[in-house]
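Appendix B, Record 12. Input sequence as logged:
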Amino acid sequence: MADATLPPSRQVDDTILVLRAGDAVPQVAEVHGEFFAWITRAAGDAWTGKWVEHDLRSADSFPDCESVAAIVITGSISSVTERTPWMLRAEAYIRDVIRAETPLLGICFGHQLMAQALGGDVKRNPRGREIGTVEVTRHLDDPLFDGLPHELQVNSSHVDTVVSLPPGATVIAASRLEAHAALSFGRVARGVQFHPEIDGGVMRGYIEVRRPCLVDEGLDAEAILREAAETPHARELLRNFIRYFVTSNARRAA
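Logged structural output:
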Protein backbone atom coordinates (compact mmCIF):
# COMPACT_ATOMS: atom_id res chain seq x y z
CA MET A 1 0.00 0.00 0.00
CA ALA A 2 1.55 3.30 -1.04
CA ASP A 3 2.08 6.01 1.54
CA ALA A 4 0.08 9.25 1.28
CA THR A 5 3.16 11.44 1.43
CA LEU A 6 3.38 15.11 2.28
CA PRO A 7 5.42 17.75 0.45
CA PRO A 8 9.10 17.46 1.48
CA SER A 9 9.20 21.09 2.64
CA ARG A 10 6.74 20.48 5.47
CA GLN A 11 8.22 20.81 8.97
CA VAL A 12 6.33 19.29 11.88
CA ASP A 13 6.86 18.40 15.52
CA ASP A 14 6.00 15.12 17.22
CA THR A 15 2.50 16.08 18.36
CA ILE A 16 -0.92 14.79 17.35
CA LEU A 17 -3.59 17.36 18.17
CA VAL A 18 -6.99 16.04 19.28
CA LEU A 19 -9.78 18.57 18.77
CA ARG A 20 -12.45 17.85 21.35
CA ALA A 21 -15.94 18.56 20.02
CA GLY A 22 -17.95 17.27 22.96
CA ASP A 23 -18.06 15.17 26.12
CA ALA A 24 -18.73 11.50 26.71
CA VAL A 25 -22.00 10.81 28.50
CA PRO A 26 -21.30 11.06 32.26
CA GLN A 27 -22.22 7.47 33.08
CA VAL A 28 -19.67 6.20 30.56
CA ALA A 29 -17.01 8.81 31.32
CA GLU A 30 -17.03 7.85 35.01
CA VAL A 31 -15.84 4.37 34.09
CA HIS A 32 -13.95 4.75 30.83
CA GLY A 33 -12.78 8.38 30.71
CA GLU A 34 -13.29 10.91 27.92
CA PHE A 35 -12.81 10.77 24.12
CA PHE A 36 -9.15 11.78 24.37
CA ALA A 37 -8.37 8.76 26.56
CA TRP A 38 -10.21 6.39 24.21
CA ILE A 39 -8.29 7.66 21.18
CA THR A 40 -4.87 7.46 22.80
CA ARG A 41 -5.62 4.00 24.20
CA ALA A 42 -6.77 2.74 20.82
CA ALA A 43 -3.71 4.16 19.06
CA GLY A 44 -1.42 2.38 21.52
CA ASP A 45 2.21 2.17 20.44
CA ALA A 46 1.44 3.23 16.86
CA TRP A 47 2.27 6.76 18.02
CA THR A 48 5.24 7.35 20.30
CA GLY A 49 5.09 11.15 20.13
CA LYS A 50 2.98 13.57 22.15
CA TRP A 51 -0.79 13.92 22.29
CA VAL A 52 -2.36 17.33 22.96
CA GLU A 53 -6.05 18.17 23.39
CA HIS A 54 -7.82 21.41 22.43
CA ASP A 55 -11.53 22.03 22.99
CA LEU A 56 -13.20 23.23 19.79
CA ARG A 57 -15.94 24.87 21.85
CA SER A 58 -13.43 27.19 23.50
CA ALA A 59 -13.04 30.79 22.35
CA ASP A 60 -9.27 30.35 22.47
CA SER A 61 -7.40 30.56 19.18
CA PHE A 62 -6.59 27.30 17.46
CA PRO A 63 -3.09 25.80 17.50
CA ASP A 64 -1.01 26.33 14.38
CA CYS A 65 -2.17 23.53 12.08
CA GLU A 66 1.13 23.53 10.18
CA SER A 67 3.25 22.80 13.26
CA VAL A 68 1.62 19.52 14.36
CA ALA A 69 2.08 16.05 12.88
CA ALA A 70 -1.67 15.40 12.56
CA ILE A 71 -5.12 16.36 13.82
CA VAL A 72 -8.01 14.17 15.00
CA ILE A 73 -11.53 15.59 15.53
CA THR A 74 -13.68 13.73 18.06
CA GLY A 75 -17.34 12.87 18.16
CA SER A 76 -19.93 14.98 19.98
CA ILE A 77 -23.48 14.87 21.28
CA SER A 78 -23.96 18.14 19.37
CA SER A 79 -25.28 18.19 15.80
CA VAL A 80 -23.46 19.84 12.92
CA THR A 81 -26.89 21.07 11.81
CA GLU A 82 -26.97 23.47 14.79
CA ARG A 83 -24.49 25.77 13.00
CA THR A 84 -23.30 27.32 16.27
CA PRO A 85 -20.53 29.97 16.26
CA TRP A 86 -17.95 27.50 17.57
CA MET A 87 -18.80 25.06 14.77
CA LEU A 88 -18.42 27.77 12.13
CA ARG A 89 -15.03 28.72 13.59
CA ALA A 90 -14.03 25.07 13.56
CA GLU A 91 -15.09 24.69 9.93
CA ALA A 92 -12.90 27.64 8.92
CA TYR A 93 -10.00 26.01 10.76
CA ILE A 94 -10.66 22.71 8.96
CA ARG A 95 -10.34 24.50 5.62
CA ASP A 96 -6.98 25.88 6.81
CA VAL A 97 -5.89 22.37 7.79
CA ILE A 98 -6.84 21.00 4.37
CA ARG A 99 -4.93 23.79 2.61
CA ALA A 100 -1.89 23.10 4.80
CA GLU A 101 -2.11 19.37 3.97
CA THR A 102 -1.84 18.44 7.62
CA PRO A 103 -3.06 14.83 8.08
CA LEU A 104 -6.62 15.03 9.42
CA LEU A 105 -9.01 12.36 10.71
CA GLY A 106 -12.61 13.15 11.63
CA ILE A 107 -14.57 10.72 13.81
CA CYS A 108 -18.41 10.73 13.73
CA PHE A 109 -19.24 14.41 14.43
CA GLY A 110 -15.71 15.28 13.26
CA HIS A 111 -16.35 13.42 10.00
CA GLN A 112 -19.59 15.35 9.48
CA LEU A 113 -17.96 18.67 10.38
CA MET A 114 -15.26 18.08 7.76
CA ALA A 115 -17.86 17.34 5.10
CA GLN A 116 -19.88 20.45 5.97
CA ALA A 117 -16.76 22.65 6.06
CA LEU A 118 -15.71 21.53 2.59
CA GLY A 119 -19.06 22.09 0.88
CA GLY A 120 -21.10 19.00 1.76
CA ASP A 121 -24.36 18.81 3.69
CA VAL A 122 -25.32 17.08 6.94
CA LYS A 123 -28.83 16.17 8.04
CA ARG A 124 -30.62 13.63 10.21
CA ASN A 125 -30.17 10.18 8.69
CA PRO A 126 -33.44 9.23 6.94
CA ARG A 127 -32.55 5.57 7.51
CA GLY A 128 -32.65 6.07 11.26
CA ARG A 129 -30.26 5.83 14.18
CA GLU A 130 -27.18 3.64 13.82
CA ILE A 131 -25.94 2.33 17.16
CA GLY A 132 -24.04 -0.71 18.32
CA THR A 133 -21.62 -3.03 16.58
CA VAL A 134 -22.32 -2.90 12.84
CA GLU A 135 -20.74 -4.24 9.68
CA VAL A 136 -18.94 -1.89 7.30
CA THR A 137 -18.15 -2.91 3.72
CA ARG A 138 -15.16 -1.39 1.95
CA HIS A 139 -15.78 -0.18 -1.59
CA LEU A 140 -12.30 1.12 -2.43
CA ASP A 141 -8.76 0.28 -1.43
CA ASP A 142 -7.29 2.95 0.83
CA PRO A 143 -4.31 3.11 3.22
CA LEU A 144 -6.77 3.64 6.08
CA PHE A 145 -8.06 0.08 5.56
CA ASP A 146 -4.73 -1.54 4.73
CA GLY A 147 -4.55 -5.15 5.91
CA LEU A 148 -8.20 -5.18 6.98
CA PRO A 149 -10.92 -7.48 5.61
CA HIS A 150 -13.39 -6.35 2.96
CA GLU A 151 -16.10 -6.43 5.63
CA LEU A 152 -15.36 -5.51 9.23
CA GLN A 153 -17.15 -4.87 12.50
CA VAL A 154 -17.13 -1.34 13.93
CA ASN A 155 -18.84 0.42 16.83
CA SER A 156 -21.19 3.23 15.93
CA SER A 157 -23.54 5.76 17.53
CA HIS A 158 -25.09 8.56 15.46
CA VAL A 159 -28.35 9.99 14.12
CA ASP A 160 -26.97 12.52 11.61
CA THR A 161 -25.29 11.69 8.32
CA VAL A 162 -23.47 13.33 5.42
CA VAL A 163 -26.29 13.47 2.86
CA SER A 164 -24.30 15.32 0.16
CA LEU A 165 -20.59 14.90 -0.40
CA PRO A 166 -18.33 17.93 -0.79
CA PRO A 167 -16.54 18.37 -4.12
CA GLY A 168 -13.73 15.84 -4.57
CA ALA A 169 -14.78 13.57 -1.68
CA THR A 170 -14.80 9.82 -2.31
CA VAL A 171 -16.73 7.07 -0.53
CA ILE A 172 -14.39 4.39 0.85
CA ALA A 173 -16.86 2.29 2.85
CA ALA A 174 -20.55 2.00 3.77
CA SER A 175 -22.82 0.14 6.18
CA ARG A 176 -26.47 -0.92 5.95
CA LEU A 177 -27.71 2.37 7.40
CA GLU A 178 -24.80 4.62 6.50
CA ALA A 179 -23.90 5.21 2.84
CA HIS A 180 -20.88 7.36 3.77
CA ALA A 181 -19.29 5.36 6.58
CA ALA A 182 -15.76 6.31 5.50
CA LEU A 183 -14.75 9.16 3.21
CA SER A 184 -11.60 10.49 1.59
CA PHE A 185 -11.48 14.29 1.58
CA GLY A 186 -8.13 14.49 -0.17
CA ARG A 187 -4.65 13.06 -0.07
CA VAL A 188 -4.19 13.12 3.72
CA ALA A 189 -7.71 13.81 5.06
CA ARG A 190 -10.12 11.04 6.02
CA GLY A 191 -13.41 10.81 7.89
CA VAL A 192 -15.23 7.87 9.48
CA GLN A 193 -18.84 7.98 10.65
CA PHE A 194 -18.19 5.17 13.14
CA HIS A 195 -15.93 5.13 16.21
CA PRO A 196 -12.65 3.21 15.83
CA GLU A 197 -11.73 4.31 19.35
CA ILE A 198 -14.79 2.81 21.08
CA ASP A 199 -14.31 -0.61 22.69
CA GLY A 200 -16.99 -3.07 23.74
CA GLY A 201 -17.34 -1.66 27.25
CA VAL A 202 -17.88 1.89 26.04
CA MET A 203 -20.31 0.69 23.38
CA ARG A 204 -22.40 -1.23 25.88
CA GLY A 205 -22.41 1.81 28.17
CA TYR A 206 -23.78 4.01 25.41
CA ILE A 207 -26.45 1.50 24.48
CA GLU A 208 -27.61 1.35 28.10
CA VAL A 209 -27.78 5.15 28.31
CA ARG A 210 -29.63 5.39 24.99
CA ARG A 211 -32.01 2.50 25.81
CA PRO A 212 -35.11 4.74 26.28
CA CYS A 213 -34.49 6.40 22.90
CA LEU A 214 -34.00 3.04 21.22
CA VAL A 215 -37.26 1.70 22.63
CA ASP A 216 -39.13 4.86 21.60
CA GLU A 217 -37.74 4.46 18.06
CA GLY A 218 -38.90 0.86 17.84
CA LEU A 219 -35.42 -0.65 18.00
CA ASP A 220 -34.56 -3.87 19.82
CA ALA A 221 -32.36 -2.50 22.58
CA GLU A 222 -31.72 -5.95 24.07
CA ALA A 223 -30.48 -7.37 20.76
CA ILE A 224 -28.28 -4.33 20.10
CA LEU A 225 -26.77 -4.65 23.57
CA ARG A 226 -26.28 -8.40 23.22
CA GLU A 227 -24.46 -7.97 19.90
CA ALA A 228 -22.13 -5.18 21.09
CA ALA A 229 -18.53 -6.39 20.81
CA GLU A 230 -14.88 -5.52 20.71
CA THR A 231 -13.84 -4.30 17.26
CA PRO A 232 -10.08 -4.83 16.85
CA HIS A 233 -10.19 -4.22 13.09
CA ALA A 234 -11.68 -0.78 13.66
CA ARG A 235 -8.95 0.02 16.17
CA GLU A 236 -6.40 -1.02 13.56
CA LEU A 237 -7.91 1.56 11.23
CA LEU A 238 -6.94 4.31 13.69
CA ARG A 239 -3.45 2.88 13.86
CA ASN A 240 -3.30 2.80 10.05
CA PHE A 241 -4.08 6.51 9.98
CA ILE A 242 -1.00 7.07 12.11
CA ARG A 243 1.20 4.69 10.11
CA TYR A 244 0.30 5.85 6.61
CA PHE A 245 -0.74 9.46 7.04
CA VAL A 246 1.32 10.63 10.03
CA THR A 247 4.47 8.70 10.93
CA SER A 248 5.90 8.08 7.48
CA ASN A 249 4.91 11.57 6.33
CA ALA A 250 6.60 13.27 9.27
CA ARG A 251 9.74 11.22 8.66
CA ARG A 252 9.87 12.28 5.02
CA ALA A 253 9.27 15.91 5.94
CA ALA A 254 12.01 16.07 8.56
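The helical segments are 26-32, 35-43, 85-100, 109-117, 200-216, 221-227, 232-253.
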